[in-house]
Design brief:
Blueprint lengths: L9 E3 L7 H6 L2 H10 L6 E3 H7 L9 H6 L8 H12 L4 H15 L3 H7 L3 E2 L2 E2 L3 E5 L2 E4 L26 H17 L5 E4 L9 H12 L8 E6 L1 H4 L10 H13 L3 E7 L9 H12 L3 E8 L7 H13 L3 E7 L6 H4 L3 H13 L9 E7 L2 E11 L2 E11 L8 E5 L32
Helix pairs in contact: 5-6, 8-9, 9-11, 13-15
The structure holds pyridoxal-5'-phosphate and iron/sulfur cluster (SF4).
């Protein structure tokens, strides 16, 4: 047993060389890679990840090491060289920033646009913290949750700023959210996302939830919280000063008549094996909340059927419901992680075959693309030809949901853009329509 509650310590580029475990276990070359790649991609770990998750005897292959530590291959060789050179020659901060921003720009042309795309307009105002793409579910990005307890190396949504506004701002933001949901009767779910909402103290989270709690919104059935805190800092629910307060807040949500779904991001079974995470899961489930799990499929981390089989089995045994397997987007640093669509499906299927029905709740592998979430159903032979069968799990046009369709077989395709329609069709059916989802 732990005698003293562990206190969260962030390890970043500024202090990582002072950490004893890192100092002892990383080669000088690996430290150099962290230093160089860490200029461009987010790098933050913490004492829990270092002390309880990483298997230091298995570097550099350890999945949690790959998940949290920048690796040389995450940058293109010429980008790596130019940053290394700039550091070596003592380039000024301005020069380095210029270089780093240019590289980032090339790695990451999409996400900002994606966000801006689905921002609704309500009473003549653009609702900046809200994204509404699919009819039933509204995404809410609390201003105070734009960071995480550690950063995944495959993520680009690292924080741009740390908000300094207080509770008042939270209240205002979420009152707008409540008004928006009330005015859109088809909305049944709200998903709190970020960053990680569980970076917030319970009092702040409560301020965000308050407008939904003081009066039950009739059309709102489920409140979801998307979080990686169980993987990166389960002490949030055990020994942090606000642990009990957060759990009481969850109970309040449930008592108010909402379904509370904790959407837990886990990438590897290792994250489910510590005493701390098992206990945290039990405490969350005791509030009446349900834990559903999701993860992208990533080379170097979990691109093997056993990885998924073991993870899903463990999740079910802890009372969590496997929910999504996502496909990594093949842009920028994702080329280090990306797995071809067809191979994603083979991994999914092989793992799916080895678990009981209780773990077959998982949907995937799924691409979150412009038109919607598209699931790879597998390869089908018709006559002498192979085809990829796909379908919409979720779509901006509700009528497309569940509709199967075919693409020409392509073992090298990483994303929807790489696919061509089957049977010599010129377009996929969803490319022919300009349907726009009416928000109000
Ligand atoms: C995945 C997703 C949702 C939720 O979809 P479900 O199928 O209900 O889980 C909502 N909005 C966006 C933008 C999403 O990507
Ligand atoms: S937990 Fe989510 S938002 Fe945070 S770094 Fe990982 S992928 Fe990105």
């Amino acid at each position: 047993m732990l005698h003293q509650p562990p206190k969260y310590k962030a390890i970043t580029l500024a202090n990582f060389k002072k950490n004893e475990l890192i100092e002892r276990n990383l080669t000088p070359a690996q430290k150099h890679h962290v230093e160089v790649v860490g200029q461009v991609l987010p790098f933050k770990v913490n004492n829990y990840v270092l002390d309880e998750l990483i298997d230091w005897s298995d570097l550099p292959h350890d999945p949690i090491f790959q998940l949290t530590f920048p690796q040389k291959g995450m940058l293109a060789p010429q980008d790596f060289q130019s940053v290394a050179q700039a550091l070596k020659s003592g380039a000024s901060k301005t020069e380095l920033n210029h270089l780093v921003n240019a590289i980032r720009h090339n790695l990451n042309p999409h996400p900002a646009g994606q966000l801006e795309h689905n921002v609704p307009v309500f009473k003549n105002t653009r609702l900046k913290g809200i994204q509404h793409k699919y009819r039933e579910t509204v995404l809410f990005f609390p201003n105070q949750s734009q960071t995480c307890h550690a950063y995944c190396t495959f993520c680009f949504r690292w924080p741009q700023f740390v908000g300094m506004d207080g509770l008042k701002f939270a209240m205002q933001e979420s009152r707008t959210l409540a008004d928006y949901i009330r005015a859109n009767s088809k909305v049944s779910d709200v998903l709190f996302t970020g960053g990680d909402p569980m970076i917030m103290r319970a009092s702040r989270m409560e301020a965000y939830l308050e407008p939904l709690l003081t009066q039950k919104i009739p059309n709102l059935r489920s409140i979801r919280i998307g979080s990686k805190v169980l993987g990166y800092w389960p002490y949030k629910f055990l020994t942090d000063p606000d642990a009990d307060e957060m759990l009481r807040l969850f109970e309040r949500v449930v008592k108010q008549g909402y379904h509370l779904s904790f959407m837990a991001h886990f990438n590897h079974v290792r994250e489910l094996e510590t005493p701390a995470v098992e206990k945290a899961i039990r405490r969350i489930r005791n509030t009446g909340a349900v834990i559903r799990t999701q993860s992208p499929i990533m080379r170097h981390i979990n691109d093997h059927p056993h990885a998924w089989r073991d993870m899903w089995r463990k999740q079910v045994s802890l009372g969590c419901i496997p929910y999504y397997m996502f496909i990594a987007r093949d842009t920028g640093a994702q080329s280090y992680f990306a797995v071809p669509l067809e191979r994603c499906h083979r991994i999914y299927r092989e793992a799916y075959q080895q678990v009981s029905g209780l773990a077959r709740t998982v949907r995937g592998p799924s691409m979150s693309a412009g038109p919607g979430k598209i699931q790879i159903l597998g390869t089908v032979q018709i006559g002498n030809e192979n085809y990829l069968n796909l379908r919409f799990i979720q779509s901006r046009n509700p009528e497309w949901v569940g509709k199967p369709f075919f693409a020409s077989y392509d073992a090298e395709a990483f994303w929807l853009d790489d696919l061509t329609p089957a049977f010599n069709q010129e377009h996929f059916f969803f490319e022919e329509s300009n349907h726009v989802l009416g928000m109000n």
